[in-house]
Amino acid sequence: MAWPATLLKGRPRQRADLCWSQRSASSPELWLVIVDASASTRRYQALSRAKGLLASFFDQAYRARARLALLTASGTAPRWQRHGLKASAALQPWLAELGAGGGTPLLAALQEARQWLVRRQKQFPGEQQRCLLLTDGRLSKSAALVPLPCASVLIDMESGPVRLGRARQLAEQLQADYWHMDQLDSAACGALPQRQ
After folding, report:
1. 156 in Cβ contact with 175 (< 8 Å)
2. Are residues 109 and 70 in contact, defined by beta-carbon separation less than 8 angstroms?
3. pTM, to two decimals
4. pLDDT tens for residues 44-76?
């Protein structure tokens, strides 16, 4: 019901006095979050700071009724934490326990994410997909990268007095928007671009 339009006509006395608004059927959204949780992200509390951004991001996903997919890159292989589930408060314990360690299987995570997104696009063709990648860009090896099949944002977690700037190069290769964590406040984290 459109309350402002109804009340502008005076107090409704019968059903005919009510004004109705048509619901717009917006496309469902999927937000894929890839977190580099390698040992290098422990430096200068980079991962701890990124957790604050992620908490805000999860809250915004909940309010937008978006589905979330979470993929962590640490140790020897990437690991899925969630697969397209609705955002909820159940993510907070996972976020609190998220720790860093091991190697950086970020290239494998990007390849796995790409394949998963392509399969999901076939399964849900109307779904709007967006990706948020948090990394310091410190990869053990370099490789030619193929952009993800959706609009993407890379948030650079590299902290400290000497910065190598590898995450910016990674963002260019992935054709992703680039932000450094220092440039963001918690409100800006959820402003991912729309699928084009």
Report:
1. no
2. no
3. 0.76
4. 667 777 777 888 888 888 888 888 999 888 888
Q: Which residue has the tokens 């999901």?
A: 120
| Domains of the chain, start order | 27-186 (3.40.50.410)
3-state secondary structure the chain: CCHHHHHHCCCCCCHHHCCCCCCCCCCCEEEEEEEECCHHHHHHHHHHHHHHHHHHHHHHHHHCCCEEEEEEEECCEEEEEEEEEECCCCHHHHHHHCCCCCCCCHHHHHHHHHHHHHHHHHHCCCCEEEEEEEECCCCCCCCCCCCCCCEEEEEECCCCCCCCCHHHHHHHHHCCEEEEHHHCCCCHHHCCCCCC
- What's the pLDDT score for residue 110? 92
- Where residue 137 falls (left for φ over 0; alpha for ψ -120 to 50; beta otherwise) is left
Structure token pair of residue 175: 């054709």
